[in-house]
Amino acid sequence: MLFERIVSKGLAHYSYLVGDKDSAVAIDPRRDFEIYIEKAASEGMKIARILETHRNEDYFVGSSALAQATGAEIWHADDQWEYEYGRAAEDGQRWKIGRLEIEALHTPGHTPGSMSYLLRDADGISWILFSGDALFAGDVGRTDLLGRDRAIEMAGLLYESIFSRLFPLGDDVIVCPAHGAGSVCGESIADRLWTAIGIERKHNPRLQVRNKDEFVSNQTKTQPEKPPYFNMMEKVNLEGEPLMERLPTPNPLSPQKFEALAAGAQVLDTRTELGFSAAHVPGSQFIWADGLASFAGWYLSYDQPILLLTEGNNPEEVVRILIRERYDNIAGYLSGGMLAWHMSGKDSRSLKTVTVQEFCRAIDQSHEAAVLDVRSDEELLRNGRISGAQHIHVTQIPERHKEVSRDQEVYIFCGSGMRSTIAASYLEARGWENLAVILGGLSGWKSVKCPVVR
Q1: In the sheet where 126-132 sits, what is the strand order?
Q2: pLDDT of residue 366
Q3: If DSSP codes are grouped into helix, strand and coil, which group holds residue 42?
Q4: Nearest residue to 444 (alpha-carbon basis) of 391, 386, 392, 372
Q5: Domains in the chain, ordered, with CATH?
Q6: What is the pLDDT of residues 61-120, one digit of tens each?
Q7: What is this structure's pTM?
Q8: Three-state SS at 396
Q9: How crowded is the C-beta side of 3, counted as CA atoms within 13 Å?
């Protein structure tokens, strides 16, 4: 028997591969699909079916390409939309996988036609629920993605799906959701790698409600804005795609060629925040590699090619992350990195950085400066606000950057320096000059002039 969870870093996307005897099924596969074929083949299995739990919004699903590579049949959810590939799964539909069986359960709420899939073992015992974005560890799926005007309706559907369809399956059933902690498809998914119906019924904060009205009220409170790239994902995930024979390989570029192309491209620097701050190509956008999946959709455009500057001069993992969000137009990468750039006599920029302690001393000695705090509202509630600071969440900087002062030095804070550097690079590329990134978190914050207010 085969059971694998495939984790896509950054996106916190979970896909699954289940097999028995000589056949296997992939659930919500990602676009770079080689791993599913390799793992199935290592167990002597062929992927016979591909199941989708819903039309995904946060990544480019790989069902169509995987089916072309394997001959597997595709069953998708959300039959109210016009898919250009596969067939629509029906509530109660069952498939055999060797001695195992999977049943489709209609669980609307996150999307109107969301499906969960219940896996039964060889003895017919309900064993594992692939819940898609209906139920997460410590959270439930967002119900606002069709627009605020339908959020109440969708929240009501999700309540019925969870309380009337999933809970009756039994507390012992293991829950395998489509996302883990950090995904934008939930608001506060718990960092539990494995969970179960009983754990969620008893401990999930979203489910500790007296009735449907309370659930709907909680669910329709303000949720984070969805990233702009979701609109592209909603489109391409109905179309499918031609088979991608291999992972795109961007060309290595000399500093001269890189500079020439940069005038009409987006320069993306995925090195560490300290490396970027020390020296970077003018006009480049910083997003560290492990944060790329979370923030690319807020800062990168589909309209311009992307030029890469990566750690270790190896762009493969960065390319994988980008293509999962349909950023395919990667024009090349800087061969030799910043060392080659400087040795070619090219100009570079740097960002001022200060530690928390240095900033607190400077501000308390009457140093005139503004503080831009790019943390989330949840972080502010949990850890405290910096008195007098301007608050713009890092994902809202592209939309609200004109609100940031140009007339005084701006110190940018996030709790580590990573997200602050994202914001600083965006502002610097648009003409802001007096910027500084505060390194470290609130643990060392001792400013009298700008105290932390809890």
Answers
A1: 94-97, 100-106, 115-120, 126-132, 174-177, 195-196
A2: 75
A3: helix
A4: 386
A5: 2-239 (3.60.15.10), 252-343 (3.40.250.10), 352-453 (3.40.250.10)
A6: 999 999 999 999 999 999 999 999 999 999 999 999 999 999 999 999 999 999 999 999
A7: 0.91
A8: helix
A9: 10
